[in-house]
Design brief:
Elements: H1 3-9, H2 13-24, E1 28-32, E2 37-40, H3 49-57, H4 62-70, H5 73-79, E3 84-86, E4 97-104, E5 107-115, H6 123-145, H7 153-162, H8 169-178, E6 186-194, H9 201-211, E7 219-223, E8 227-234, H10 241-256, H11 259-262, E9 265-269, H12 279-296, H13 316-325, H14 331-343, H15 347-356, H16 361-368, H17 372-385, H18 393-408, H19 410-423
Antiparallel strand pairs: 1-2, 1-5, 3-4, 4-5, 6-8, 6-9, 7-8
Helix pairs in contact: 1-2, 2-6, 3-12, 14-19, 15-18, 16-17, 18-19
Amino acid sequence: MDQKELILQTEDIHKATEFISSKLDKPVIVENKNFELIAYSSSFEEFDQTQQKTILSKKCPVFIIDRLKKEGIVQKLESKPEPIRIEPIEELGFYQRIVIAAKHLGHTMGYIWVQESTSLLKEEDLIFLEEITSHIGKLIYDAYSRVNVKEGRKDELLWKLIHHEYGSETQFRHDAKLVKLRLPERCVVLIFSITDPQYNDLLGTLKELVIHSPLRKDIQFLKTEFQIVMFVHGRAGAPFSATDTARTFIDEVKQNLDGESFYYFMIGLGKEYTKLIDIRKSFLEALEVIETANFIEPRPETMPREFAKLGVYRYLATLYEKNSSEDYFSEDLLELMKKDTEGQTNLLQTLEVYLANNGKAKQTAAELFIHPNTLNYRLKQILDLTNINLQDFNMKSYLYTELLLLNNVPGYYKRYQEAISVHLKK
């Protein structure tokens, strides 16, 4: 039996994905219509940076989705039945790939992505994708129709809610009443996602912590392969009560795990809502926090875990794409980087910490473990070497954002290093 027949006969979306990957000899990812991960070919390890982020955060990065919409790719997928080839976006770690919409009963259920990092698919491969795509669409539909039924009808309703399968709150409340699902008066979504599949056992530990937590009565949860999604309840008339409970639980997890194990989790907390139909918003917000953490590779405790506190972190991926595609650099920061390289100074870090502390000299010196006089000397060096004006709020905001990229995105720092000699010889 050939691979095509195996795919058309299987009712398991994961097996079908592996068969497609084996047939094409390429890494394959299957996503639903909301660009959320359904399955991927585990036999391949050559996933590009974008696909690695999708696998870890269980959702395609927002800045990639925006780019695809901006270039009309998403619209083409709705109207064209054949595969579409997407050119690489090198600055985003997005390799060339083929994508085709997987439809069922005339509706798009999701997408099949095939990475073409080393060689292009042949014409017969593209025809093969067209022939099996409708079956994949049915499998995606079936997967969400019966998702987590073995865990109970209550879990199934929660999955449908966060995957936007309810048109109204009234319908959800009706179904919830039938299965006696306890509904919150206020709710926030909290997600724990492991940073690497090798730490998968930690999800079992986390599940036990939830079950035995004093806060258990206020937490419902769903477990996936790499994440635990929690619905944290709050009280009517008590704004932020759900958020406070979520914060308390995060602290509880931190106290029960050793320091290193705790940081094997990426944690995202959405905003708190009173309308049940808005719980999906909180879910997507929590995912965005995790996606951002995955993008910038933060040092422990440096990045907010709450969507409401992300601030400029929300825009780092967009700025990274814009600056990289336009080959943009800050001449001031290039000058400081050159000075740090040649003179073994620490001016870039000093500037970042000073800006992060809103210009508070005593706090900055303490954080850097230096004397206030040393800080003043470094700040004078920075001002002498550059056109930086520390009294200009807009300039300070811009510099801080650029420094976050430099110090947390290795590829961005490498760009600056390579540009030092070119830009400073002009």
